Amino acid sequence: MPTRTNSIMQSNESVSIKLLIIGIASVGKSSLLFRFTDQQWLPEGETNPTIGVDTYEHKLDVKGKRVILNIWDTAGDERLRAITSSYYRGTQGIILVYDVTNRESFNAISWWFTERSKNALELAVKMIVGNKSDKSHMRQVPTAEGAAYAARMGCLFVESSAKTAVGVREMFRDVVERILDIPEFWGPSKQAFKAPNDLAHMLK
């Protein structure tokens, strides 16, 4: 008899996946999301800082499955990091973004791994993304260093540019493909991965 996992992954029904995007302020998290969901780029001066969390829904086809992505874009401001911990519950994929022209933003990734042990689902697929790769003349973090760190932490890795769209679609597809390959997310004991409809109480 087919298992529930097999029936879900072999059926035509859509699957819902929750992704969390983390990184300090100004690494380009919102710009990456806007490029991915709307196929447009907003210059840094035209984007507003995220307060608490913004949520996006985006549909795409991966491995023959219709996937509904619930993407949570978190604030990077230091004083709002405590709020972020409320959003780990039920997350299947976590994308950690740094700015290749900002060494501090890369070093801050290690802080998240400490938080993960307290908040994140162990099975969650992790990807480290070095954004703003188009600014090669300002680079402070070499590609090889970012890739080596990701490998050491057991994460996927890609460099991207919200401005040129390089690596943007790949970062989301690679994470989703890996999530679809994890049976525990789709079995009878899977967690509920739906986001709350009203986030206002978390921001008070």
TrEMBL record:
CDD domains (UniProt xref): Rab
Stated name of the protein: Ras family-domain-containing protein
Pfam families from the UniProt entry: Ras (PF00071)
InterPro entries attached to this UniProt entry: P-loop_NTPase, Rab, Small_GTP-bd, Small_GTPase
UniProt KW DNA repair keyword: no
UniProt-listed SMART domains: ARF, RAB, RAS, RHO
Molecular functions per Gene Ontology: GTP binding; GTPase activity
Keyword line: GTP-binding, Nucleotide-binding
Cited NCBIfam families: small_GTP
